[in-house]
């Protein structure tokens, strides 16, 4: 019966400090933290880092435990047909995060895996994570090329051992190589194979490898649940982030609408002011029209009076003319 107690290593319960939008390794991060805790490796090398979630998980444990471990991430940071191709911004983003936290014991090496080999002495690497190009030929070449660099207590971790598509050949290589070494495999999260290349000196790692089928089922379920919980929490965090963005967007829309309402209110005030001015003008015009009517009426009365006076004068003049002139003309 295994004496391994997973809860003796609470680091595997810690929330990883780096979770990017490249989720392929997220569900294995709790085990990665647990593995570093029980192995206490002197040197960790990762082949294929991409956004750095798995690598930063290794570094996080080294940092929290205060280990003297040296860590190296090796990648061209250009991508490939399986992972997809990307630009320099991926490495730039990782450097900005990584260097401040882990730069004192960790290095990001932009190189091909083969070119980096000469910088490591034989027998120097205690934990090797292989996650490069996933064809059978590539992963076999990576394993065999780096095998001499592994120490007498080395452990190798292979990602994507449970992928059976897109020309991934890791499953085929895993089925071959696990015949030669003590091993352990997770099937969730695209699969993760763990090989004990050297002598198993860590007692708890030995207990892990010697676990019964029933114990292995419990261990697999334990780390699956932890890893899946990370996935769920990340999805919740993404949804909350989108909701916050939506709330900010709605708040900005409300602000713009409030501003427009204010503008409309000001326009209404201006229109009301104009309407008041127009009403005053209309009142003035109406008053002027009344005055004009009165003037026209007065003018008409004057004309009528003048016409009457003229008629009276004409009549009076005619009578005077007759009286004077007709009288003179009589014998």
Outline the biggest β-sheet.
Answer: 7 strands, mixed
Give the CA-CA distance, first to last residue. 177 Å
What structural category do the secondary elements indicate?
A: alpha/beta
CATH architecture of the largest domain: 3-Layer(aba) Sandwich
The average pLDDT value, as a whole number, equals 89
- The CATH topology of the largest domain is given as Rossmann fold
What's the alpha carbon Rg, rounded to whole Å? Answer: 48 Å
- Count of discrete alpha- or pi-helical segments spanning 4 or more residues: 8
Structural write-up:
There is one protein chain. The chain is an alpha/beta fold and 331 residues long. The chain has 8 helices and 9 strands. The chain folds into 2 domains: 6-211, Rossmann fold (3-Layer(aba) Sandwich), CATH 3.40.50; 239-320. The strands form 2 sheets. A 7-stranded mixed sheet has the order 5-2-1-6-7-9-8, sandwiched between helices. Strands 3-4 form a two-stranded antiparallel sheet. Strand 8 (183-186) and strand 9 (192-196) form a beta hairpin. Helix 1 (29-39) runs parallel beside helix 2. The chain is rod-shaped and about 170 Å long. 28% of the residues are buried.
What are the salient characteristics of this protein?
single chain; 331 residues; alpha/beta; seven-stranded mixed beta sheet; two-stranded antiparallel ribbon; 56% helix
